[in-house]
Amino acid sequence: MSSSLHARHGSANSAFSTFSSSSVVAPPPAPEGNGPREGPAPSAFDALGRLASFPPGQTSLGRLLEVHKALWLPAGFAAMAFTGNWGMRPALMTGLFGAYGIVWVLKSNIYPDLGFYNTEKSRIKGAVDYAVKFAMIGVYFLYPYLAAANTATLHPLAAAASTLGFCLGGFFHWAGDAQRYFELKYNPNHLITDGFQSHVRHPSYLGEILMWLSLTTLSGPLNPMSWLPVAWLSMITLAVGIPEKEKSLSRYGKKFEEWRARVPALIPRLW
């Protein structure tokens, strides 16, 4: 792995390099790509750096996502019960899909993506806003239903490929997020170019794409509806996520340009 190139900048949340023992402290830096923090005082944040209080009727996208992901395992069992299909395909889907949801909730309460909790874009204002955003990511619930509705025998190679891809994707997704959170917690305000970021610029996006492709394989790739979650994720990632993040990272100037020229965006280099 290459050594980190450090470039000081303002992040979405000014931070301590270490936390105090108090349950409410100043937040660690948010993921790269966010601007300087403007708004609540440090006392408004919990020990993980998440905004802890909101005006009545408001919450954050991060909290919504925790609720959404907590439903993924029950959704898998509900799909099997609804279709009456308790076979290998829906069972494997329920295990993988449910595990993703559980890990998301655990991760969000150990090393959260602060961009989902603290930015103005992540603010949810009112029941209608909550319902609309919840419905927008409801496309992922297609996976357990399509797997349960698919009565074709699951080929062993498809089972192996989907499990392998899902686990590899999870490695890049969860571990990439962990590196970013803890590296910026203890060494805030710098451009991360070591670890995962020495091989691929956006390891978390890579991981998610691998995981959704694996679930598409498992639910039945010949069904066009199985590709809707991948299409949605690709649109969000390629059209919004990566461009916005790299536009913000361009503040690092020459160091960012050198890193971008050297490291691929989504296909990891092996050396």
> How big is the Rg?
20 Å
From the N-terminal CA to the C-terminal CA, the straight-line distance is: 8 Å
Q: How is the main sheet built? A: 2 strands, antiparallel
Number of strands: 2
3D structure, described in words:
This protein is mostly helical and 271 residues long. It has one domain. The chain is built from nine helices and two strands. A two-stranded antiparallel ribbon has the order 1-2. Helix 2 packs antiparallel against helix 3 (88-108) and helix 3 (88-108) packs parallel to helix 6. The longest helix has 31 residues, at 156-186. The radius of gyration is 20 Å and the shape is globular. Residues 1-39 have low confidence and may be disordered. This is Steroid 5-alpha reductase C-terminal domain-containing protein. The chain crosses the membrane at residues 90-110, 130-147, 154-175. InterPro entries: UstE-like (IPR010721). Keywords: Membrane, Transmembrane, Transmembrane helix. Pfam families: DUF1295.
